[in-house]
Amino acid sequence: MPGAPCSTSxxxxxxxxxxxxxxxxxxxxxxxxxxxxxxxxxxxFKQMETMYGFDGCDKEPFFKEMDLCKNQRKFDLVLQAFFQxxxxxxxxxxxWTWFGSLFFVITFATSVGYGxxxxxxxxxxxxxxxxxVVSIPLMGYLLILLSxxxxxxxxxxxxxxSHEQSSRSGAHSPAGAPPGLPGQExxxxxxAPALASRSDRDRFFRFFEFYSSEGQSMTYxxxxxxxxxxxxxxxxxxxxxxQRLAFSCFLFVLCAVMAxxxxxxxFQKNWTWIEGLYFAACTLLTxxxxxxxxxxxxxxxxxxxxxxxxxxxTSTFIALLTKRLDHLARRKGGQLRG
Length: 338
Fold this sequence. Notes:
CATH class: Mainly Alpha
CATH architecture: Orthogonal Bundle
Helix content: over 70%
Strand order of the largest sheet: 1-2
Order of helices and strands: HHHHHHHHEEHHH
């Protein structure tokens, strides 16, 4: 497929540029709508705390047993629960600054939604509904495009390396050697370390062409899975081999991304390895329970990169697994009917 990586690269860059402008603009709107409300809640809490607060309760042991101080502690707990019920914090967590809003936009567009941040103003809620209509399909398309593009670049790089090594081998071949011998020797020498042969690459590209030609275009359903509306066409043998290759590649990349994220969160957030893997799995499966969530700027930045790198791979892997199970089920059904 000559020229495919180059043309796809231009398409990916154009899509990334449009998506970047769209999400940055959305973050600016959310910051404009929600940040003042976040600051107002914090200001109101400080005002009420000043009105009922008595500094002596924490300074003198004599005052701690007085009804005034006991009631103050009870009221403080009630007040904290009231202000935290809508996702507000007693300290300014800067959830709706421009960067915090950008993090919300990314998690919202990928349908992860950790639940620790959500709009509280009516204008913010209305904008969320309108913004999601475009953002969720756009993010899904972008993630799928990035996952395919990364594999295409991988195959293109391997092909370039294979050609370069073959040229060096041909240049040092002895005079009078039979035609084709250097290439045959090259194939024999490089067969073991090679991750994908030219035929593998061709089958991989034909595998994705098969989806398009049979009307089985990959679409994003908003839950990080790919749906294939038509799965009744018989898959050629060459395409089945390409499917196995793609399945193995995506599985390897997915495991690598999961392990790298768990390692990073283990040090950034002081989570255990199980907690890091649990958070990574919940994120890539777009579950987003919210029991574990990034809070620092560094962890939020890493999470955004992790989502953009891993979610497209996960969605494509789930699509391949679904396709594989579908063909197995149809084959078993045909055997039973026969």
